[in-house]
Amino acid sequence: MAQPFNKGVSPLVASVLLISFTMAIAAILATWATQYMTQQTTTLTTKGNEANCVYARMNLDTYSYDKTGNQLIMIVNNDGRVGLQNFTLFLYNGSGISRISLETDTSVTNRQNTTLPPGEPRSFIVNGVANVTRFRVVSNCPEYSFVDKTV
């Protein structure tokens, strides 16, 4: 009588399959963990920056608007306890709202890309601004440090 032929998987093939399966699961978990940690780090950084903004304050020391020369001159003072940066000027006129970066736009004569430390003023001279009825200056903390003036 013939013996039944055993058709099982050899121990070597079984080991290779088991290791491959384990490595695939480890790769999936590592990818997920990396994405999760990146997302959490970004969220915490954003929340930390928002928490610092509670101490941000900005005041407009003085301003002048020359309607004939289309020039706005203003001195912004950092009255808060954190440095301010990324200053943006919003100009309101009869045709809408325009936005000017006070740090990079070429219409700003004395633009600066540096942080404004607490307690210090900074002047801005903006050229080519016509028919302005109101303006607003905001920084990297727009909810806490802004100036809004009607001309």
How would you characterize this protein structure?
The structure is a single chain. This protein is of the alpha+beta class. It has 2 domains: 10-53; 58-150, Immunoglobulin-like. 28% of the residues lie in helices and 32% in strands. It contains 1 helix and 7 strands. The protein has one helix at residues 11-53, and strands spanning 58-66, 71-78, 88-93, 96-101, 121-127, 132-138, 146-150. The strands form 2 sheets. A 4-stranded antiparallel beta sheet has the order 4-3-6-7, with no helix packed on it. The mean pLDDT is 88.
List the helices and strands and how they pair.
Blueprint: H1 11-53, E1 58-66, E2 71-78, E3 88-93, E4 96-101, E5 121-127, E6 132-138, E7 146-150
Antiparallel strand pairs: 1-2, 2-5, 3-4, 3-6, 6-7
Number of helices: 1
CATH topology-level fold name of the largest domain? Immunoglobulin-like
Rg from Cα: 30 Å
Neighbour order of strands in the largest sheet: 4-3-6-7
Overall CATH architecture of the largest domain: Sandwich
Which band does the percent of strand residues land in? 25-35%
Integer tally of domains: 2
Number of DSSP strand runs: 7
SSE order, one letter for each helix or strand: HEEEEEEE
By CATH reckoning, the class of the largest domain would read Mainly Beta
Helix content: 25-40%
Uncertain regions spanning at least 5 consecutive residues: none
Shape: rod-shaped
Task: Calculate the mean pLDDT score and round it.
Answer: 88
Structural class: alpha+beta
End-to-end gap: 109 Å
Largest sheet: 4 strands, antiparallel
